[in-house]
């Protein structure tokens, strides 16, 4: 990292070419030093099949480079031109209802169709060979928001690929039948090509099949991205990313595996500010040692035909940017430069109106640029501190919960993203610096690990956790974790699979406890319990019961246990405390085990005020403190603290922040 980047998504192809100099002049006036271009330009480059020219975009790159503005160039594969799919419905995406998508929006083509995939790779090859060494380009982005509007693809070519994927995975159909238990309902298959994709059926498909198809489709889209990366790397040495969103139908960990750095998009309204922190906390450890980028956000409000968000209050955008820079982001980038005059996103905010006047968000962008200039030397001289606490992100777990949202009844489902965000929020509210780490990530630096909603706990994951615990770490195995097998079956050896023996518990009952009137008592509090419950009893003499159920279904059984192993502990939470008292109980649980694990990166700040700890190469400590809830706040600073921007000494004690205010402090 040699600078902080501040930019916008730019669509010169939508406006007269003569206006490009005016755009660039206005960008320079604002201080923007990057733009992202190209993701929707295939028809501009190849209006007719085989008639390709990138001359227009070379002229754009030349002008941007002359102005000192770096370019993130996107491959244009999310919006194939009409000639590729018109009259060829076989080349289009098919959903689970059998509906064939049509040209007119984006992501309508099936990347599984060999003609579509070949055309995609040809246009990427043409683009990369033409501009791959252009000095304006600072990075590449593959496609745009994979699976933003679609989920699993059921095009016949996708289904044929599914059969090949299954054969490569299982080897023989007998192994698949055994793993999935296909004797149920006479599902047993004789050949791989008989295994259906989970399209409409009178009731429901086997859970094993449905989850496997999700994982197959997510692997396939990652392979499509890998193929594009390979083409670009033949022609360019610039780093490559993809702008992901956590609730799209992709495998986040797999998607990032072959990228050079992580980036994300987020358009949170004011009341969902924790999402900004969450996304930074997930992308920061995704590619260790590489800064991540905040690739898309709105300057004032999100908007499309079906919805528009509430406009940001003054100060919100700057707070969003500062906390992202503090948490390790190198770039913040807006969608978009100039308001769309056509299309389906007419209500979306932009830096400039269609009539080329400052928008309601223009002054907010000016405030971000002023903050960027102040922060840049401090951010370049430091790195985010290594988190001591983390929440596990499991892509297989997410797929399983999408197949089987445990709870069943409307209002009682378990949503993976929401539950992981809830646990992340508990660490955030406790003032604990935290990561969101992928299931396959190393546990380096951690002292406390919370693993919620990960139904399958693999031997590899548990081996890693055991080493972590024996060295002094605390692992909290939160509700539903361990309740399913690798192929989305129910364990037959123990209720929580391998976790039972490791945690020294016996899972006596496994059932939905919401609505039964059951309560749990722990840490001196009694709260309702909800969700899917694993009612426990100790199975070893060194397992302690810390929380007991009062329940007609499981009277006197445990819902919270602890077992010391080596220098650390494994904690099983079998049911989720609910309501206001449940929130207090969970806060006590987190505080207790953070202290027991020896977590030191914890800050005394008011709710809605976030501390981003950073460290310099020579051991100095820097705090970036931001108020994100718009209520103002304070943080307690120790003796000897100094305002990093003014050099003024700060008294020990509460340091106040205004509404959406921020401070940078040397400790």
From TrEMBL:
<dbReference type="GO" id="GO:0009341">
    <property type="term" value="C:beta-galactosidase complex"/>
</dbReference>
<dbReference type="GO" id="GO:0004565">
    <property type="term" value="F:beta-galactosidase activity"/>
</dbReference>
<feature type="binding site">
    <location>
        <position position="106"/>
    </location>
    <ligand>
        <name>substrate</name>
    </ligand>
</feature>
<dbReference type="GO" id="GO:0046872">
    <property type="term" value="F:metal ion binding"/>
</dbReference>
<dbReference type="InterPro" id="IPR017853">
    <property type="entry name" value="GH"/>
</dbReference>
<dbReference type="InterPro" id="IPR013529">
    <property type="entry name" value="Glyco_hydro_42_N"/>
</dbReference>
<feature type="binding site">
    <location>
        <position position="144"/>
    </location>
    <ligand>
        <name>substrate</name>
    </ligand>
</feature>
<dbReference type="Pfam" id="PF08532">
    <property type="entry name" value="Glyco_hydro_42M"/>
</dbReference>
<dbReference type="InterPro" id="IPR029062">
    <property type="entry name" value="Class_I_gatase-like"/>
</dbReference>
<keyword id="KW-0326">Glycosidase</keyword>
<dbReference type="Pfam" id="PF02449">
    <property type="entry name" value="Glyco_hydro_42"/>
</dbReference>
<feature type="domain" description="Beta-galactosidase C-terminal">
    <location>
        <begin position="612"/>
        <end position="665"/>
    </location>
</feature>
<comment type="similarity">
    <text>Belongs to the glycosyl hydrolase 42 family.</text>
</comment>
<dbReference type="InterPro" id="IPR003476">
    <property type="entry name" value="Glyco_hydro_42"/>
</dbReference>
<keyword id="KW-0378">Hydrolase</keyword>
<dbReference type="Pfam" id="PF08533">
    <property type="entry name" value="Glyco_hydro_42C"/>
</dbReference>
<feature type="domain" description="Glycoside hydrolase family 42 N-terminal">
    <location>
        <begin position="9"/>
        <end position="372"/>
    </location>
</feature>
<keyword id="KW-0479">Metal-binding</keyword>
<keyword id="KW-0862">Zinc</keyword>
<feature type="active site" description="Proton donor">
    <location>
        <position position="145"/>
    </location>
</feature>
<feature type="active site" description="Nucleophile">
    <location>
        <position position="296"/>
    </location>
</feature>
<dbReference type="InterPro" id="IPR013739">
    <property type="entry name" value="Beta_galactosidase_C"/>
</dbReference>
<feature type="binding site">
    <location>
        <position position="304"/>
    </location>
    <ligand>
        <name>substrate</name>
    </ligand>
</feature>
<dbReference type="GO" id="GO:0006012">
    <property type="term" value="P:galactose metabolic process"/>
</dbReference>
<feature type="domain" description="Beta-galactosidase trimerisation">
    <location>
        <begin position="412"/>
        <end position="599"/>
    </location>
</feature>
<protein>
    <recommendedName>
        <fullName>Beta-galactosidase</fullName>
        <ecNumber>3.2.1.23</ecNumber>
    </recommendedName>
</protein>
<dbReference type="InterPro" id="IPR013738">
    <property type="entry name" value="Beta_galactosidase_Trimer"/>
</dbReference>
